């Protein structure tokens, strides 16, 4: 028996009345799957209801795959694929495997010669980079910076210096309820000649992307980013 295929299915970055971020081809594959590795069951079932015409939820085998899932348990997720069944990985938002625990399952799939197929859909990281106007040839994503303010400011200084020396765009994020604190730390730490982009609520009706020099940020009214998913991008000069 041939192995099944592991599909990597991007998830909407927020619910909208109409589909503006996932191609119909991707949705049609999702509609056929009855095995899914999901980061969050509630958000996964909400997505399925939004997509419509999927396999009934009670007929889907769900596997819980998050940052705390033990390696041994993840290994057991291979069984349906080795039995010839296709499966999908659903992130809570965005692209599986990108700042996402789905990468662990993908690594295992390759080790067992299981075909891995990434599907087209939204990634806030790349969408923010596209809209920033910064260097898209050389960039690095750093995930979440340290929670401790002193360590966070030190990391911001480090990333700014690396960007200035090498011309590399630096991308990172913060828990949405700490976004305003992150913005204030960036403005109090970085040189006025450094450029900062904030990309908030990407693909949603409330989307707002601001890209300008720190000096311009300091002289204008700051946006309220509290509890709004935001990508921060620095480019030192």
UniProtKB/TrEMBL annotation:
<dbReference type="InterPro" id="IPR008189">
    <property type="entry name" value="rRNA_ssu_MeTfrase_I"/>
</dbReference>
<dbReference type="InterPro" id="IPR035996">
    <property type="entry name" value="4pyrrol_Methylase_sf"/>
</dbReference>
<keyword id="KW-0808">Transferase</keyword>
<dbReference type="InterPro" id="IPR000878">
    <property type="entry name" value="4pyrrol_Mease"/>
</dbReference>
<dbReference type="InterPro" id="IPR014777">
    <property type="entry name" value="4pyrrole_Mease_sub1"/>
</dbReference>
<dbReference type="GO" id="GO:0008168">
    <property type="term" value="F:methyltransferase activity"/>
</dbReference>
<keyword id="KW-0949">S-adenosyl-L-methionine</keyword>
<dbReference type="InterPro" id="IPR014776">
    <property type="entry name" value="4pyrrole_Mease_sub2"/>
</dbReference>
<dbReference type="Pfam" id="PF00590">
    <property type="entry name" value="TP_methylase"/>
</dbReference>
<protein>
    <submittedName>
        <fullName>SAM-dependent methyltransferase</fullName>
    </submittedName>
</protein>
<keyword id="KW-0698">rRNA processing</keyword>
<keyword id="KW-0489">Methyltransferase</keyword>
<dbReference type="GO" id="GO:0032259">
    <property type="term" value="P:methylation"/>
</dbReference>
<keyword id="KW-0963">Cytoplasm</keyword>
<feature type="domain" description="Tetrapyrrole methylase">
    <location>
        <begin position="21"/>
        <end position="211"/>
    </location>
</feature>
